[in-house]
Design goal:
Elements (H helix, E strand, L loop, with lengths): L10 E5 L14 E7 L5 E7 L5 E7 L2 E8 L2 E3 L9 E16 L7 E15 L7 E9 L2 E8 L7 E7 L2 E4 L3 E5 L13 E4 L5 E2 L3 E5 L4 E7 L7 E7 L2 E6 L8 E4 L2 E2 L2 E7 L2 H5 L3 H4 L15 E6 L1 H4 L15 H13 L4 E4 L28 H10 L3 E7 L4 H5 L2 H10 L4 E5 L7 E4 L6 E4 L4 H16 L3 E4 L15 E4 L19 H5 L30 H10 L4 E3 L4 H4 L3 H9 L4 E10 L3 E8 L5 E7 L4 E6 L8 E9 L13 E9 L3 E6 L4 E8 L2
Helix pairs in contact: 4-5
Length: about 675
């Protein structure tokens, strides 16, 4: 709907730019387009500067938040789409709807926004190109994307890089990880001044000196390269696209739209977390009924390989044997787990598969693993067999087998597959233009983005859900493709098995406000033994392992430890089996970025609430309020918390305390979180 009324503040008028920091005093008038969020708190200004470059800026509650920042592209085969632009018009619209997620952190999502699309024409001597920039303003953030129409001057757009800028005005603190490094997204998060960021993967989270919280990311990354946020100077950042072996970082036929560039904006940490901006910027569900997928908890044959006890490759220590898998299925059935993951079941693990993967088969099992017999046994016990397809980064080999593999898995009654792309940052082996040719690509370049979409769309045909490891970052595409249930995309539990590489106690309470803003993560919690390879201890208490199920959302949640280790902790095992993986509501009720995070989540299938989360290395006392509970009802609270003297640095990490009490709406609970600790609470309503 196009509109110039209904609370919008639009202007297409001649104005002189005299009060925009970072822009020289105008010598001539420039057309200006302005727009505001539904509640008027966020105001956008779009214009051109004295060098005829397209620029945008953003204010919140009357204060400049993003100073004038450039828009445009550098092309590989034409003059840059940077200078020579003039605004030729604008379109406006607004929308306020609510939509339902088939699974997720919350069942219903409100999408309330105002739109303005600004049309630009580039003068003939500068290339004569056309582009539009579509801005969508929410009360808690903004998204914008380029829309490139059909035009005489260009039929295919070959992009060397974007010029998109974010000039953050106030000073503050940033939490970020390096972009473009060898280990993909599996980097340690850094906490620096905003000016101390170098080149970062998104989301990048910032807390400004006035308390405003920002998170810069992107949405709807389809057939395009992911971008890294590159620091220029001061608070000025510019997008830079992941490279491609073919020259242009992105090549698209016209017309097309880019992904959305996004900023979440909030007064506090909770406002940053309880924000569905990227989901709302994605298209609605294209797959229709996906009720064949149900969120579950699972166990598996995996931790043994991570800790070095078993091997993926064939041999005397091979982990994925028929009998071990049946035993694990029995454990899953006994303790009410919905699935069993098996890694190393297929041919191709012998030899050097890291960054290679040319020998992997996705339909042929190794001799000591009977795929048909195991699948039939899992079906008999009411347990889902979760497939595993490691590619070693060789997408050429994987794409050639996709249909055959997913057709087989569907026939065997399997409905979910964990994929893997273990290779260095530039280690993706992609098909070339001719038979037998290959190209080396980045994990988050356009070719790999295309590949992931091919996997997800092929899987959907066979009613198979995809959990991507070593993925392209999540950008809310689970709304459009609900069978894309999960991604890794950060340092998961496996790093805690590797000694010097282990995650610190602040890793998980940092991820809540960074990585988790992009979408669900298969972190694989539930190592109740609290030790990895060679008995290396985890930076965690026992209670924190339970709190992870509430802090780090996923529609599939693993209990990663060996079954025999899990069985040593019957109360904790019961909680893990009981805690849902699907929610009707989720609220951050206490937390600060990088320090601690306590959630309240309501089970979608019952009236139960669960409360819990994780802490960093600083022990702290909290007072939790049960304001979220239904009025007029009492609830029995079953509490798992750090025991007296617990801390992650000594054997006291295993100290856990249990309590039971009756609570109602408005009650409070005093909770002590140990160093490296956490907590978990089930709230079950009375009659």
């Amino acid at each position: 709907m196009k509109s110039n009324q209904g609370g919008f503040r639009w202007a297409l008028a001649m104005a002189t730019i005299t009060a925009m920091p970072g822009v020289a005093m105008a010598q001539a008038a420039h057309p200006v387009v302005t727009a505001a969020s539904p509640d008027g708190s966020i105001t956008l200004t779009v214009t051109t500067d004295n060098d005829s470059r397209a620029i945008w800026s953003l204010s919140r509650r009357g204060k400049l938040l993003v100073a004038p920042s450039k828009l445009g592209f550098i092309l590989t085969d034409a003059i840059a789409m940077e200078r020579g632009f003039a605004i030729t018009g604008s379109d406006t619209a607004k929308s306020d709807t609510t939509w339902e997620q088939p699974w997720g952190e919350r069942r219903y999502v409100r999408d309330n926004h105002n739109d303005v699309t600004v049309h630009f024409h580039q003068a003939g001597e500068w290339g004569g190109h056309e582009m539009a920039v579509h801005f969508r303003l929410f009360d808690n953030g903004i998204g914008f994307r380029y829309e490139i129409p059909k035009q005489p001057a260009m039929t295919t757009m070959n992009i060397a890089d974007e010029i998109t800028e974010f000039s953050v005005v106030p000073h503050g603190t940033a939490w970020w990880m390096p972009g473009g490094e060898w280990n993909r997204y599996e980097q340690v998060y850094q906490k620096t001044a905003i000016e101390g960021v170098s080149t970062a993967h998104t989301p990048v989270t910032m807390r400004l000196d006035d308390g405003t919280h920002l998170a810069i990311h992107e949405a709807a990354l389809v057939d395009y390269s992911g971008y890294w946020l590159k620091h220029v100077t001061g608070g000025l950042f510019r997008t830079t696209l992941a490279p491609s072996s073919s020259g242009p970082r992105v090549s698209r036929k016209l017309p097309f739209d880019t992904p959305w560039r996004t900023i979440r904006i909030a007064d506090n940490a909770a406002g940053l977390v309880e924000n569905d901006l990227e989901l709302n910027l994605n298209e609605p569900n294209k797959e229709g009924d996906v009720s064949w997928f149900k969120p579950i908890k699972y166990v598996g044959i995996w931790w043994g390989m991570i800790t070095g006890k078993w091997s993926w490759a064939e041999g005397p220590n091979h982990g994925a044997t028929t009998q071990r898998t049946k035993d694990t299925i029995d454990f899953a059935a006994k303790h009410h787990f919905g699935g069993v993951l098996v890694e190393g079941w297929d041919k191709g693990w012998n030899g050097n598969w890291f960054g290679n993967g040319s020998q992997f088969s996705y339909t042929e099992a190794v001799p000591d693993f009977d795929l048909q017999a195991v699948a039939a046994y899992a079906k008999k016990r009411g347990v889902q067999l979760i497939g595993h397809n490691e590619t070693g980064g060789n997408i050429a080999n994987y794409e050639a087998q996709l249909d055959d593999a997913f057709k087989l898995y569907h026939a065997l009654g399997m409905n979910s597959v964990k994929t893997g792309y273990v290779a260095d940052a530039g280690g993706i082996v992609a098909p070339g233009d001719k038979p037998g040719e290959i190209r080396m690509e980045f994990h988050d370049g356009q070719r790999q983005v295309q590949h992931h979409m091919k996997v997800v769309e092929t899987a959907a045909k066979y009613h198979i859900a995809i959990d991507s490891h070593e993925p392209v970052k999540d950008t809310g595409l689970r709304r459009t493709y609900p069978n894309w249930i999960d991604r890794e995309g950060a340092r998961g539990m496996e790093y805690n098995a590797w000694g010097a590489y282990a995650n610190g106690p602040d890793h998980e309470p940092t991820m809540v406000y960074t990585r988790m803003l992009s979408g669900p993560m298969d972190f694989t919690p539930g190592v109740l033994s609290l030790e990895g390879h060679d008995h290396v201890p985890l930076a965690s208490t026992l209670a924190k392992q339970l709190g992870l199920y509430l802090a780090l959302y996923s529609p599939i949640q693993m209990a990663a430890d060996f079954p025999e280790e899990l069985a040593k902790y019957p109360k904790e095992l019961d909680f893990i089996a009981q805690v849902p993986a699907d929610w009707s509501e989720s609220h951050l009720i206490a937390g600060e970025v990088g320090e601690y995070a306590i959630f309240a989540r309501k089970d979608r299938a019952s009236e139960d609430w669960y409360v819990g989360g994780v802490n960093d290395a600083t022990a702290r006392d909290l007072t939790l309020r049960f304001d979220f509970l239904a009025p007029g009802r009492t609830y029995t609270a079953t509490i798992y918390k750090d025991g007296e003297g617990a801390n992650y640095q000594t054997e006291a990490r295993h100290r856990i305390a249990y309590a039971t009490r009756v609570v109602k709406k408005g009650d409070t609970l005093s909770l002590w979180l140990a160093s490296g600790g956490g907590a978990a609470i089930r709230l079950h309503p009375g009659k």
